[in-house]
Structures are given as C-alpha cells and as structure tokens.
Amino acid sequence: MNILLSIHPEYAAMIYAGEKKIEFRENIPRKCEIWDYIFLYETAPVFAVTGWIRVSDYINVKKILNGDRKDLKKMIINDGRLTMEQIKAYKPNLRLWGWHIAEAYNFGHKEIITRFSPNEKPPQSWCYTRAEIQGNICLKYDHVLNKKSYEREKEILNKWEK
Fold it and tell me: Which domain holds residue 33?
C-alpha cells in the first residue's frame, strides 16, 4: 500500500537532489512494504504532490543516538540534514524513526492533492493512499473524476497557483 507524506518544500528539494537520505518521523507504516511508493506532498507555499520516494529500511533513531557508535550518529545527522539540536527540538525524547530513502523521483510538475487524498486534505504527517504509479508517472486514482470533481480540482489548483 502506498503512502502520502507531508513535507516542507526545502526538505523535498534536498531529497530530490539526493542530499537528504533520511526523513525523520515519529512512527513507521505497518501496512507498507519497503518498496511501496511514498508520494511527497509539499506544504506551503507549494501545496501539491511533486514526486515520490522509496524507502529501503527504517532506522530506530533513539537507539543509534543513545548508543556509542559515533560513525552511526554522524551518518544519521549528515544523511538527515538536521543538527542534533534540530532533532531534539522536533522530538526531545528522540523516539523517532529514520526512513532511509533509497530512490526519489520529482514529477517536474504539481499534482493536485485530491488525486491522492479524496477528502482534499493533506495528512498531518503521513497516511495511506490508493494512488499508484502506472507506466512512467501516470497515476491510477481511487475515485472517478466526473465533471463536478474536475471543476473542483480546477478551482483548487487555481487557488494554489495564485
């Protein structure tokens, strides 16, 4: 099952550039296979799904940062593109998971949120989605676009473009 993940645009840019290889989250998906697609919804000012990543594994950040392996600590901080202070500010008790990014793809255009989330709302952190990749970046959606929903999508897209 695929995932829709909310992310700040600056972190998405680092992921697409191959600079950020670990994304920090408070939990991990239970219904997701390692190689499922994780679609990236960029928050303000982008307000759109801009691409996808694939995760190769999940890292228990607390175990690594509380351990004595300095090389692993350095890897977490460097690959996550956050300082130790930023990590502690995000989650003081360090109960975090590092989602190790193996692959990333930027669509090169904005995809509207309704094609991934039928309730038109981005997730607070992440949620499961039925959107799939078919062919190159042709998406199969979990709802049928009719004239009314198409007009609503155009209205939302126009609002975002302003």
Answer: 2-161
**CA 69 centroid distance within chain:** 28
> For residue range 59-94, what is the model confidence (pLDDT) as tens digits?
999 999 998 899 999 999 999 999 999 999 999 999
Tokens of 156: 């939302």
CB-based contact 98:58 (threshold 8 Å): yes
Q: Which amino acid is at 155?
A: E
Residue-by-residue DSSP string for the chain: -EEEEEE-HHHHHHHHTT---EEEES---SS--TTS-EEEEETTTT-EEEEEEEEEEEEEHHHHHHSS-HHHHHHHHHHHT--HHHHHHH-TT---EEEEEEEEEEEEEEE-GGGT-TTS---SSEEEE--EEETTTEEEPSS---HHHHHHHHHHHHHHH-
Distances (CA, A) of 137 to 106, 119, 131: 10, 22, 11
Q: Are 22 and 101 in contact (CB under 8 A)?
A: yes
Question: In the chain, how many domains are there?
Answer: 1
Looking at the DSSP bridge assignments, the partners of residue 110 are: none
Task: Tell me the CATH number at 90.
Answer: 2.30.130.30
